[in-house]
Amino acid sequence: MSNIVYIATSLDGYIADKDGGVDWLHSIPNPEGNDFGFAEFLAGIDALVMGRNTYEAILAFDLDLERQWPYPKPVYVVSTSAVGVPSALEGKVFPLQPGSPGALVSQLAEQGHQRLYIDGGKTIQGFMEEGLVDEMIITQIPIVLGGGMPLFGELAEPQAFELVSSEVLLGAMVKNHYRRRR
Ligand SMILES: NC(=O)c1ccc[n+]([C@@H]2O[C@H](COP(=O)([O-])OP(=O)(O)OC[C@H]3O[C@@H](n4cnc5c(N)ncnc54)[C@H](OP(=O)(O)O)[C@@H]3O)[C@@H](O)[C@H]2O)c1
User: Fold this and answer.
1) Mean pLDDT for the stretch of residues 123-132
2) CA of 149, closest atom in ligand 1
3) Residue with CA closest to ligand 1 atom 46
4) Taking residues 85-108, what's their average pLDDT?
5) CA-CA distances (angstroms) from residue 65 to 34, 62, 141, 159?
6) Considering only Cβ atoms within 10 Å of each terminal Cβ, which end of the chain, N or C, has fewer?
7) How far is the CA of 120 from the centre of ligand 1 (A)?
């Protein structure tokens, strides 16, 4: 079983700016629309665990959900309240019974999902607190936001990771893949 974070941050470690915005993620011109390996990454996971706020932020992009929903794997949305699923996303998005990250992983393992993509700041922090993040692929965008939603929160103990690979994207961003040192 592996729980993997794939996310982009500012140089000061934020995943969204002070207004919750993420336009700065696209601040480096990418004329060829390179996905930097995201589709390949998605092909290698079984399912996503996504926090309600991230799910709602994606819905707010006003995508054509039939054609532009970005995830080819089941997306399990975590929330302590009811999660609305538009009809276009039925069979693609599933509310998950709320629980600790460990309980969520067990629920999904019972359904055969072993490799999970964990998405959303608070959701990732919950998994980190339980020591349940095995790999992190973090792309650093060269901007200092000065505030916003941090990727990481406080932990009871430090957690060590080893660098698996590092790649410079478009001569501007750095994508680092880390694996937990156990
Ligand atoms: N930079 C990037 O690559 C990137 C990637 C993803 C998201 N984002 C941005 O990050 C922001 C959202 O992040 P966020 O920190 O607000 O958090 P989030 O993880 O997306 O959502 C947090 C919510 O998820 C639910 N939740 C999390 N863990 C749970 C658990 N174990 N059991 C039950 N419910 C659980 C709770 O919902 P309830 O309150 O309903 O209980 C919690 O309030 C958005 O602005 C989004 O655009 C950026």
Assistant:
1) 98
2) 15
3) 54
4) 97
5) 21, 8, 27, 38
6) C
7) 4
CA–centroid distance, residue 171 to ligand 1 (Å): 30
Q: Which atom of ligand 1 is nearest to the CA of 55?
A: 20
Q: Specify the pairing of strand 47-51 against strand 115-119.
A: parallel
Pocket of ligand 1, beta carbon within 6 A: 7-8, 15-16, 20, 22, 25, 51-54, 57, 78-81, 98-99, 101, 104, 119-123, 126, 149
Question: What CATH number is given to the structural domain containing 150?
Answer: 3.40.430.10
The whole model's pTM is what?
A: 0.97
Q: What is the pLDDT of residues 36-80, one digit of tens each?
A: 999 999 999 999 999 999 999 999 998 999 999 999 999 999 999
* CA separation for the pair 6, 138 (Å, rounded): 6
Structurally, the chain folds into a number of domains equal to: 1
- Token readout for 117 is 């993509």
Residue 125 lies in domain: 2-180
Contact 155, 128 (CB under 8 A): yes
